[in-house]
Write a structure and sequence with these properties.
By secondary structure, the protein is mainly alpha-helical. The protein has two helices and no strands. The chain has helices at about 1-10, 30-45.
Length: about 50
Amino acid sequence: MQQRVALARTLAVRRPIILIDERFGALDAQTREEMQQMLLSFGQKRKIPSSS
């Protein structure tokens, strides 16, 4: 939950670059997949380039 809040704060500021360390490594497999998909979807909507 803390990672979701931190990510929400980062996205709310509308920065052109988002740096993420550990890429959701501490999450369980299902939550990690959901977070990755949410972040990719959000980036596509805002046209933020992805490095993955």
